[in-house]
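Fold it.
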Amino acid sequence: MPTTAILLLPLLLALMAGGTRAEAHGQGLYKTKAEAEQRAKELGCQGIHQNNGLWMPCSNEAHLHRELRQQ
């Protein structure tokens, strides 16, 4: 198996399992603070936070992941 395939295999398996960190980021990264605030209201969590220049709902990433798993 090529080296690239070996390195990507865990990511592929995680994505297939659902509820992964990558999936949460896909549902939780926003360009504007207002978008993240709106999503936080929809999720029922408090606050927002930044991640690599983008905005995420909930006070921290762990809280966001808990809320997304409950959906």
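The mean pLDDT is 76.
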